[in-house]
Write a structure and sequence with these properties.
- There is one protein chain.
- With about 850 residues, the protein is α+β, with helices and mostly antiparallel strands.
- It contains 34 helices and 26 strands.
- The strands form four sheets. Strands 10, 11, 14, 15, 16, 17, 18, 19 and 20 form a nine-stranded mixed sheet that branches.
- A hairpin with a 2-residue loop joins β17 and β18.
- The longest helix is centred in the C-terminal third of the chain and has 41 residues.
Length: about 850
């Protein structure tokens, strides 16, 4: 490697390093291109709904109707402002990567070790690495002593990785299986090393992740795509109706000013001006609800995206599992003992002498320390394997301090990858030296000549060794990391004296399932959502965890990174339909998986916590990061952050997302029923020669008597079966055919009474126009009950479940009364006061859609629900 990089053990000369720095550039990550506030503002004017309102305001101003022009302009300002401030947030995903840059490094230049700013490193530099130090660049190891590196942020591997200087890895080896390489921004846990820099800056693995993140463009969320499609439909509807009515009016000889006024009124009627604001507020309500359930939303539309998710891709370590190793099995003297993990507060069974011998080795042949000796659930610091052994011993009642006094330590053999064991030596009261040893099963079986049994000890012959190897293989097949434990008297505290020991047993450990993870998986499965586990761990571990959590359903398989790379892009999506877990995945693999799922029509939620997850978090329809354990890069790339790092919180967030989508559908149904009723009223009134509503009256209805009920619908509580319904198809529009038919029916039911009121009152007077205007307003307000649920309102308790709805109804009636009886407002709106009998007529006619709607809903069959658990708050 030194020859290929044209370097030597003495490192580079200063002159050569300067030349390479000019050629390769500084060892830093480039800053992202900022998105200006002006660009964000301009993007908000690209909405078709906004453009239609601009045209309507312009026509009103040209035709000399300043009140209408100002009213429409006010709506425009509100709509654009809400969108602008919602989107005005820094794009800091790659910024967070910059904070991963290491400040200093120890480098060999001109044959001498010198401290150097890490940004000055170049390929060919020879660097020194020590425990606790962050790796300053991607490096190939030249020498390594007891070296272990935490690569979890890059690979997702749950344990520190042992590194060695040779032999080299295969060319196609996954990132997690390259023991001769160390990578920029990972951290040395133990040991020290000399290494030669192979890549710097953007060429490093973390730099490639930054490049991938820069190339990922955040696609619109499902709700944004659906609202954009809806806006396009509204444009064509408004233009079509306006041209039709304008042509008919012009053919009858109506003045051009009247034709344009009618066209403006129709355009305003076709556009639910309050929709963007109400949608934003609905998502804001969801944000607050999610925050109460420990899910912090960083991008507003992501609230609804979670509810639309059809696939959840999730990291394993610390997400589906606790992120900490725990002893789950002790095999001692021919018997296997299940050991409760720290997550459920239990302790291993005691009462057998051999079991106590094993726990003594676990406590004393150990360099870890507990954070709190009185509370082992808080874990400890040190090697995760040793912490797990110490916690298990403490939970069993082993007093480590007392043991240290009774068994004073006089020597130690530290663990190394070459010797594959660790031993401590203790002086007994009679002067004998006793060794306590733990290590790799094969290594300990080789140095033991006896094996512990319930009755004592017996010779360890080859047949017995074969049985013990089979036990080890069986534990390993269950996804456990297995350590062997032994003890015995030795002549002196040296490595050569460690032989002829008694084999005590095995400790099997794993990263146990996180509390509530399996129940949450069952719950989201019941909601029709797939869960796909992506992990950097080995295949056997991935399969064991996946089966234990119920991730692998009938017909599902497990892939590893190498198999994944052999699957062509055009067939990957089909293959993924039968996969429940994938092991040894790289950052590029995760991005490729998310992309393939999206191209297959899935709405993907991605859960992760490491730097390696960041590109996929940004690419997914909604990225979800862990708030406590997650890296800054992951949190900046994600749209949602889970404060408590619990997988079950994602179930609560999905539920809230579904409630939001359910409520969005409700107020869209309500608003479009009302707006289509206004279009029908204008169209029929124009054809029948009746007075037509003024544009400012339509705006009043859309922004006042429509908006408060629609806002109340955004506050609707969840329906009990929300997590037992399948997800809405990603291709389904907001306005399905069934919903459009229902909107059409109610539009006729709302417009019909208003037309009847105008006809019965004579049709040509200001009173007739006011009566029709008021009847239409009341019909829309009473229609609120039809929008609140898919079934009929069957009790006063159900009617009062959303107090905002009752308040909106009362506010709407009072505001409509003000529109008629407050002189200044009546003059602006062109209305006249009504008598009591007129109000009674308007109320009676306005109640028609509400009464008919409840009857129709009582006749509707109940929808089929998926079997499965229903969560309660």
């Amino acid at each position: 490697m030194l020859e290929r990089l044209e370097s030597s053990p003495r490192g580079l000369t200063t002159a050569e390093a300067r030349s390479r720095l000019a050629r390769f550039g500084r060892n830093v990550l480039p800053p992202p291109r900022p998105r200006s506030a002006l660009r964000i503002l301009a993007d908000n004017f690209r909405s078709l709904v906004v453009l239609l309102l601009i045209v309507a305001a312009g026509i009103a101003a040209v035709t000399g109707d300043p009140a209408d022009a100002l009213a429409i302009a006010g709506v425009l300002v509100i709509t654009v402002a809400v969108g602008f401030f919602t989107e005005l947030r820094a794009r800091r995903s790659v910024d967070a990567l910059l904070r991963l840059d290491v400040a200093r490094a120890t480098v060999r230049r001109d044959g001498h070790l010198v401290p150097l700013e890490a940004g000055e490193l170049v390929p060919g530099d020879v660097v020194e690495l020590e425990a606790g130090q962050a790796v300053p660049a991607d490096c190939r190891l030249l020498q390594a002593t007891e070296l272990a590196v935490n690569e979890a942020p890059l690979t997702g591997e749950s344990l520190p990785v042992t590194k060695r200087a040779d032999p080299p890895a295969d060319a196609d080896a996954p990132l997690a299986e390259r023991p001769v390489m160390v990578y920029k921004s990972t951290v040395v846990v133990t040991g020290r090393a000399h290494a030669v820099v192979t890549d710097t800056g953007v060429a490093t693995e973390v730099g490639r992740i930054g490049a991938m993140m820069s190339e990922v463009r955040e696609a619109p969320t499902p709700i944004e795509r659906r609202l954009d499609a809806l806006g396009a439909q509204l444009i064509w509807l408004a233009l079509g109706v306006a041209v039709l009515v304008g042509a008919l009016a012009f053919a009858r000889g109506a003045p051009l000013g009247d034709v344009l006024a009618t066209a403006i009124a129709l355009a305003v009627a076709a556009v639910p001006e309050g929709l963007p604001v109400i949608a934003t507020i609905a998502m804001g309500v969801g944000v607050r609800r999610m925050a109460r359930r420990n899910a912090i939303v960083r991008r507003l539309p992501a609230v609804e995206s979670l509810g639309s998710a059809t696939v959840i891709c999730t990291d394993k370590t610390g997400t589906l599992t606790t992120g900490e190793m725990a002893v789950t099995t002790l095999w001692v003297a021919g018997r296997e003992h299940d050991v409760a993990t720290a997550s459920n507060g239990g302790s291993p069974p005691l009462g057998e002498a051999r079991l106590e011998d094993v726990l003594r080795v676990a406590a004393l042949a150990n360099r870890a320390e507990l954070h709190d000796a009185t509370d082992p659930s808080r874990g400890g610091h040190g090697d995760p394997t040793e912490v797990a052994l110490l916690v298990a011993a403490h939970r069993a009642g082993v007093d480590r301090q007392r043991l240290r006094m009774e068994w004073p330590e006089i020597g130690e053999i530290p663990f190394s990858s070459e010797r594959q064991l660790m031993a401590t030596f203790h002086r007994e009261r009679d002067g004998r030296v006793h060794a306590l040893v733990k290590g790799a099963p094969g290594r300990l079986l080789a140095i033991c000549d006896r094996v512990a049994t319930p009755a004592g000890e017996r010779p360890l012959d080859e047949e017995e060794r074969g049985r013990l190897r089979a036990v080890n293989e069986g534990l390993a097949r269950r996804g456990l990391r297995v350590l062997a434990l032994a003890s015995g008297d030795v002549e002196d505290p040296t490595e050569t004296a460690v032989r002829a020991l008694t084999f005590l047993g095995y400790a099997g450990m794993m990263d146990p399932p996180a509390p509530g993870a399996r129940a949450t998986i069952e719950r989201v499965h019941a909601a029709g959502i797939r869960v796909l586990m992506l992990t950097g761990d080995q295949r056997l571990t991935a399969e064991t965890v996946a089966r234990g959590l119920g991730l692998l359903r009938e017909g599902d398989e497990v892939l590893d990174g190498r198999e994944l790379q052999r699957v062509a892009d055009d067939t990957l999506a089909v293959r993924l339909r039968r996969v429940g877990a994938i092991s040894r995945v790289s950052p590029a693999d995760k991005l490729r998986i998310v992309t393939a799922l999206q191209e297959d029509g899935e709405i993907v939620a991605m859960i992760g916590d490491g730097v390696n997850d960041a590109p996929a978090l940004r690419k997914a329809d909604v990225g979800v990061a862990m708030g406590g354990r997650g890296t800054a890069v992951a949190k900046e790339a994600a749209a949602v952050v889970l404060q408590d790092d619990r997988f079950e919180t994602i179930g609560a967030a999905v539920e809230e997302g579904r409630v939001i989508f359910q409520n969005v559908r409700k107020f869209i149904f309500y608003l479009f029923s009302c707006n289509l009723a206004e279009i029908l009223l204008l169209l029929v009134a124009s054809l029948a020669g009746l007075p037509t509503l003024l544009p400012i009256q339509i705006l009043w209805l859309n922004l006042v008597t429509d908006t408060f009920p629609a806002l109340a619908l955004a506050m609707e509580p969840r329906e009990a079966e929300v997590m037992r319904r399948p997800p809405v198809s990603p291709r389904a529009p907001l306005l399905s055919r069934a919903l459009l038919r229902e909107i059409g029916v109610f539009a006729v039911l709302i417009a019909g009474p208003a037309l009847a009121a105008m006809r019965w009152s004579g049709g040509g007077s200001a009173r007739a126009l006011t009566l029709g205007f008021t009847t239409l307003a009341l019909a829309q307000l009473f229609h609120l009950g039809n929008a609140r649920s898919s079934g009929p309102v069957t009790s006063p308790r159900a009617a009062a479940a959303n107090p905002y709805a009752l308040a909106a109804l009362a506010a709407g009636v009072l505001l409509q009364a003000a529109a008629l009886h407050v002189t200044a407002l009546a003059r602006l709106l062109g209305t006249v006061p009504l008598e009591v009998r007129d109000w009674a007529l308007a109320a009676a006619l306005g109640a028609v859609p509400a009464v008919v709607g409840q009857v129709l809903k009582s006749l509707r069959p109940r929808p089929r629900l998926r079997p499965g658990p229903v969560a309660s708050r």
